[in-house]
Structure formats: C-alpha cells, structure tokens
Amino acid sequence: MEKIKVVVLSANLGNFDTLVENVKQELPSNVEVVFHTFTDVDFPPMTVAMAPRMQYRIPKLFGWQMFPGYDYYIWLDGSMSLQNPQSVKWFLGQCRGDIALFRHPWRKTVKEEVDHIEQKLQQNHKYMVPRYKNGLHKEQYAECLADPKFKDKNLYTSTAFIYKNNKKVREMLKEWWYYSSRYFTCDQVALAYVVHKHELKINVIEENQYNIPYMTLTSKHK
Q1: Torsions phi, psi for 24 (to 5 deg)
Q2: What are the helix (H) ranges across the chain?
Q3: What's the pTM value of the predicted model, to 2 decimals?
Q4: What is the CATH number of the domain that holds 152?
Q5: Pairing status of strand 202-205 against strand 80-81
Q6: Domain presence at residue 139
Q7: Cα–Cα dist 32/103, whole Å
Q8: What integer is the mean pLDDT of 109-120?
Q9: C-alpha span between 160 and 28 (Å, rounded)
Q10: Are 194 and 175 a contacting pair, CB within 8 Å?
Q11: What is the CA radius of gyration of the chain?
C-alpha cells in the first residue's frame, strides 16, 4: 500500500489557550501521522510586526511550507484537540476532494457572519471586541462580492479543516493570507470566497464541529 503522510498542526501563541495533548491515534499501517503545536518557544512572538492572533495564521495557512512533504494537513485551532483515537482516520475519510470544511453551525452566509460581528462590536461584546475591533470585515465582504461569479450561499468554519497538499490548495491558502492581512478580521469571512475562486473540490462536513466524537473543545476560549 502507498504510504500516506499526515501532519496535524495547531498553535498556542501567547499562551492564549490551555494546551491539551492529542490522544494516540489508531491508524492503518500505511498512514503516518505527526503532531506539532507552535508555541512561543519555537515560533517566538513577532511583537513589532503583528499580534499573536495574526501570527498564528502563518502556520494555519502555510503549514505546507513550514512542514513540507506531507500528503495531508489537518489544522486545529488551539481551542480544539483530538481526544478520539479514530480522529485522524475520520478526517482522512472526509477529505474526498481538495479540502474538507465544516459548515458553520449557526449562520448560513458570509453576510450573516459580517452582520453578527458588527452587531457584537456595537454591543461591546467582551469576546468579539478584543479580536475584531476596527477589523475591516465589511470591506472584505465587499471585495468578495465584487466578483460577479461569487454567490454568497455558504459559510464555513475555520476552526478545523483538512486539505490535500496540491497546487490549487496552496494557491488558495496564499490568497486567504492576503485577505487575512489586508482586512484583519474573522478569517472565515473570506473562506467561502477563496475556495470558490480557486475552484476547489470541497467536501462539506455537515455535522456541528462542537458535537462530533472526533474533535473536542478543550479550552475555555470558543
């Protein structure tokens, strides 16, 4: 059988989350998995250039450069971990195209997400304000809508996803970085657009990411 190499990446910069180790995985003999969490030790704070919430997006979107040579990349935000020995096997089964993304459990479109962010900022919400105050979410959405081929019909989460290491996905991730750095707001605002623009074959995971047995919320940050 052909060897399949998988890396599971996450980041906990500035001790933002409580680190919880992923459990040992039960895998077919041809699957090799490596886990790595970026911390302030191996990815020191770039305090002059960017805040930790921006810096963590570098391994999130460029894990394929930082850990080259793997067939599949699984990203987990620092608030999540794999506490089921079948988790990696399950994620691999979901990636039947270029990328597998969770559908957002509460909102259906990017517009709904942008409106939600704006509403929470106006309410001075204690979670949203430190993350997205002065972020250009409305301007980002307007740029996406300027593409006449884009129809705002989907909203995906960016908490966890798996992708194949191919050119189309890598180009999508590079452009996702453009939106993240240009507009600095919730990174899932641009996600539906960039996967559409690069014509990725998406498997949409319909289950609520917080209610599946393969991924566990292990941090108080949600």
Answers
A1: -60, 135
A2: 52-55, 57-66, 87-94, 110-122, 128-132, 137-145, 167-183, 191-197
A3: 0.94
A4: 3.90.550.10
A5: unpaired
A6: yes
A7: 28
A8: 96
A9: 22
A10: yes
A11: 17
Domain interval for residue 50: 4-217
Which residue's entry shows tokens 């997400």?
113
CA gap 159, 157 in Å, rounded: 6
Nearest to 190 by CA among 90, 105, 117: 117
Residue 148, CA atoms < 13 Å, CB-side half-sphere: 0
Return d(Cα 183, Cα 140) in angstroms, integer.
Answer: 6
The SS3 assignment for 180 reads helix
The tokens for 219 are: 């941090």
Place of tokens 């770039």: 46
Give tens-digit pLDDT for 24-40.
999 999 999 999 999 99
Amino acid letter, residue 140: Q
Residue found by looking up tokens 């919430």 in the block: 53
146-166: pLDDT as tens digits = 999 999 999 999 999 999 999
CB-CB neighbours of 150 under 10 Å: 16
- Separation CA 137–CA 186 (nearest Å): 7
In a domain, 203, yes or no: yes
Which of 19, 27, 149 has its CA nearest to residue 87?
27
222 in a structural domain:
no
Residue with tokens 């979107």: 61
Block residue for tokens 């498997």: 203
Are 187 and 131 within 8 A, CB to CB?
no
Residue 11 is given by DSSP the state: E
CA–CA gap between residue 40 and residue 34 (Å, rounded)? 20
Question: Does residue 96 lie within any of the structural domains?
Answer: yes
